[in-house]
Amino acid sequence: MTSTLRTLTVPLDVDSSSGGLPSFLVRDDVLCWSRRENGLVGFGELARFTASGPDRFLEADIWWRHLVIEADVTDPVELPGTGPVAFGSFAFSKTSAFDSRLILPEIVVGIRDGRSWLTQLTLDDVELTEAGALAALAGWLSPAVGHPTNSQLLSFRPPKTTTSASQLGDGKVTLESGSLSETAWKQAVADGVEEIRTGKLEKLVLARDVVATLPDGVNAANVLRQLAGRYRECWTYGVDGLVGATPEMLIQVEGRTAQARVLAGTLDRRDAEGLDGSPMEYAERVLAGSEKQRHEHEIAIQSLTTQLAPFSEAMNAHSEPFILELPNVWHLASDVKAELADIEGHVPTCLALINALHPTAAVCGTPTLVAGELIRQLEHMDRGPYAGPVGWLDAAGNGEWGIALRGAIIESPTTVRLYAGCGIVEGSVPDAELAETWAKFRPMLESLGISS
């Protein structure tokens, strides 16, 4: 036996008519990162690292670098996401009870720009061959193996203080308030606005949770396929029972180039139903023409660029935000691109950048410390991995890390906890913010087969 990581990457022939990466989402315990039918899926688990507290990103970074520094890597494909790859999910808060994690899979399938590959990973002293890798993949995809019913559910369990329930559909599925009732959450928004008016902070992001119970069971693989198909412009993620489709990229690193997509400002597409004129013109008028929405967006951009600047030798961002069109909502969005600086002979790693960037104003508020403390006071819940970084990294320093939004935690074979949040500024109205959370719940509710 040896503890040295060894990997073999080989080209993989994927039928272009098969639907791309989502066609590999056949198991409830699959690890997933997918956008526009491209991305990575992982099967099995060779090793994992867990950490909590303020140093969780740096501790995970050290573990990963030690694991891959002496790895025996055979990688003729040499694309981002080939060779050794780990999937990860990190807690939003340094005070969270959630164990942040990196997971090293046994098999990874990747698709990028028309090229496909298969990587087999091992910590054992066994010969890695293309035939063996293909056989291992076939084993994971085989129906004979069965589809585990969320066998790797998150150990994280927020306190469940449900305050109301409503029967939906056939009377079997229930949807309950989580930590706060709708009335209590609206009061939290009002309290947050009052704190902003005192001048203590400019922006606050408040989240709420709801719990769906599906007696017939939760099919995680189907949820991921639904999200990947409906929300192609988002990044669909699945790590240990955390599932969702985020429209927000915290940091994407390819070589020395880093990119991010920042969102702040939301409009429910249902608000445009029945109106004269084009829906996009309505979105541009209401979002881009709103002082409140643009102010919220500018705070989010400044938060990211200020934190990213020390790691960059050049940076550019859109001078004007654009309208990001999703099936459920429109967002004000901006893309930021930076060339990473060589600091003492090293380009900063994904996790080092995340350590500096998270949490951004888009998911916390500003100033960060004031907003974070107020979040803990007003939300009455532990966000766990919600609004924390989720994604993957490879041994070459490449990686993609989104913010775990528009998602949920599968807590048991029949229960799912959904999360949604809103940016609160001085002009925020509690009823409007509550309606925005329901618009943001919609992707997960639809993927679970719950009408909204």
Word description of this protein:
- The model is unreliable at 144-153 and 161-169 (pLDDT under 50).
- With 452 residues, the protein is an alpha+beta fold.
- It starts with 5 loop residues before the first strand and ends in a 5-residue tail after the last helix.
- It has nine helices and 24 strands.
- The protein is globular and about 65 Å long.
- α4 packs across α9.
- Helix content is 26%, strand content 33%.
- 51% of the residues are buried.
- The protein folds into two domains: 6-145, no CATH class; 165-234 and 252-447, Anthranilate synthase.
- A hairpin with a 2-residue loop joins β13 and β14 (242-246).
Number of domains: 2
Global structural class: alpha+beta
What do the pLDDT scores average to?
A: 90
Q: What share of the residues does DSSP label as strand, in percent?
A: 25-35%
Query: Cα distance, first to last residue?
Result: 53 Å
CATH-defined fold name of the largest domain: Anthranilate synthase
Shape: globular
Low-confidence stretches: 144-153, 161-169
Radius of gyration: 21 Å
Number of helices: 9
- What is the CATH architecture term of the largest domain? 4-Layer Sandwich
* The level-1 CATH class of the largest domain: Alpha Beta
State the helicity in percent bands: 25-40%
Output the CATH homologous superfamily of the largest domain.
Anthranilate synthase
Secondary structure tally: strands = 24
Most strands sheet = 14 strands, mixed
